[in-house]
Amino acid sequence: MNRILITGAKGMLGRALMEQRPSQYDVLGVDVEEVDVTSVRDVRRCLAGFRPDAVIHCAAMTDVDGCETDPDSARRINLEGTRNVVEGCGDARLIHLSTDFVFDGRRTTPYAEDDLPAPISVYGSTKLAAEDCVREAAPDHAIVRTAWTFGPWGRNFVLSILRAAREQGRLQVVADQVGSPTYAPDLAAALWRLVATDRRGVFHLVNSGVVSRYDFAREIVIAAGMGDVPVEAVTSAELNQPAMRPPYSALANTKLPALRHYREALADCLARLGGSNVEAH
Is 25 a catalytic residue? Predict the structure, then answer.
């Protein structure tokens, strides 16, 4: 296996994958400017031209509220885009990224790979439909569900909390959403290890540890030296967001080696940010 194609290469995870790409692979990273996954012609031209041995499919519409208010775009990108990639892959190995939002969040213990999905949002529904498409049509596939991804770039919870703490001096964060924070570089490293195997099926990949959004926000500001910034706990109902969030969506890694604790990963993320301006990321 020598040629690897990454869709969504300019997104948070895509950037981490490109940064860590192993030297033994010929890696091509594409994003919507080069290949619009909703275009059959774009996808076929890219896959036929590059002829990858494996595809890591990260491209998706991940704006949860945006998906809820524009379900047609969510379906077109998350489902139809995935179908185009699957059909263009042929016999190439497909690593498909999915989400904790395929679950309804009614549990109080982490979801395992074999637990029954029951999405409660358009985003979760379209990602589950994409999983089904991969299962049915990709002969060599691995579906990787992850959650609460953060990193030193892109739009993510950690950078949003740091920016709000600096600009507003106080925070309101939901306390009734619990999950598994996952550091994009850690996830990328695990995905590269998975690419090199022939393992198939559904896998969960998250950093160890379970926390509420509120407690995670408090940990972020304290670790960043802004522990004097007040953090107020609010409910999801108070935020009145368009899309419902699963109240408990922590994932259990039962099939792949566990990743380090999210607090260690958070420390690395903050160290990497250093004295840089959060607005630049």
Answer: no
